[in-house]
Design brief:
Layout: E1 14-15, H1 18-26, E2 37-42, H2 50-54, E3 59-65, H3 68-77, E4 85-87, H4 95-98, E5 104-108, H5 114-123, E6 130-136, H6 137-144, H7 154-162, E7 163-171, E8 176-177, E9 184-191, H8 201-213, H9 219-227, H10 247-261
Pfam families: RrnaAD
GO molecular function, one term: RNA binding
Binding site for S-adenosyl-L-methionine: 13, 15, 43, 65, 89, 108
């Protein structure tokens, strides 16, 4: 069959530069030839990245592809990949059932769901030791940026709590068909040594989301809106804005909130 038509509704921009595809593939660590690591490619498209992944002996590549036309194309052009190509939505896949021993995630991620992909990785952080993705540059900067930057936000804090994040390289618009209106970037997430945060992890997520809910306001206002007035108690961070706090600061703040609201 011929070329797959890119579908705007699926956020598809097919990578056509083989050198970029090779660099993305090389950015992912693997296992060994004797014990290859399972890898899931999200959004295989026409297999530009897939072909390089399939050449590696230290990984076993699986694919998640929602577009039926792309699935047909991949089955025709990469028959050896067909048994491990799953037609469906990655965001709905039961990763624990499919990959009980863990899986690395890689892909030229559709822009319209890239944040959701990272939230799913975060949900399965005990299963996903590494994730390499090409995404919109703005989102990559947001995920990788340190505290104090105006891009720093909810996704930055939550991912940085559990992963070491590297902004690898920027990618121009012309290496895609059709070209997107923005630049792209490749980032790599590798699980850090944190097994558990030193606070209630569900409350940590609530505190982070509440803190950035009104990001122009001081934390005093954002947190009181979400949790009440804490009996009039004040925290030293209350006069700061959310973007100024590190992951460790948010852990400390969560411990304080937990003492005041009883969990």
């Amino acid at each position: 069959m011929g070329e797959v038509r890119a579908k705007k509704a699926l956020g598809q921009h097919f990578l056509v530069d083989l050198n970029i595809a090779r660099k993305i593939c090389d950015a992912l660590s693997g296992g060994t030839a004797e014990a290859p690591a399972p890898v899931l490619e999200v959004g295989c498209g026409m297999g530009v990245l897939t072909q390089f992944l399939l050449r590696r002996s230290d990984i076993v590549v699986w694919g998640a592809e929602i577009d039926a036309e792309s699935v047909d194309y991949l089955r025709a052009h990469y028959p050896e990949f067909t048994p491990r190509l799953m037609a469906g939505d990655f965001l709905r896949m039961e990763l624990r059932a499919l990959f009980p021993d863990g899986v690395r995630v890689i892909g030229n991620f559709p822009y319209n769901i890239s944040s959701q992909i990272f939230f799913k990785v975060l949900e399965h952080r005990d299963l996903v030791p590494e994730c390499v993705g090409m995404i919109q540059r703005e989102v990559a900067e947001r995920i990788a940026c340190p505290p104090g930057s105006k891009e720093y936000g909810i996704l930055s804090v939550l991912l940085q709590a559990w992963y070491d994040i590297e902004y690898l390289f920027t990618v121009g618009e012309k290496v895609f068909n059709p070209p997107p209106k923005v630049k792209s970037a490749v980032i790599r997430l590798r699980r850090n040594g944190v097994v558990r945060l030193a606070c209630d992890e569900r409350l940590f997520v609530r505190v982070v989301k509440a803190s950035f809910g009104q990001r122009r306001k001081m934390l005093r206002n954002s947190l009181r809106a979400a949790f009440g007035d804490f009996g009039g108690a004040e925290h030293p961070f209350f006069s700061q804005r959310a973007e100024q706090l590190s992951v460790a600061d948010f852990v400390a703040l969560t411990q304080w909130v937990e003492q005041r609201i009883g969990g």
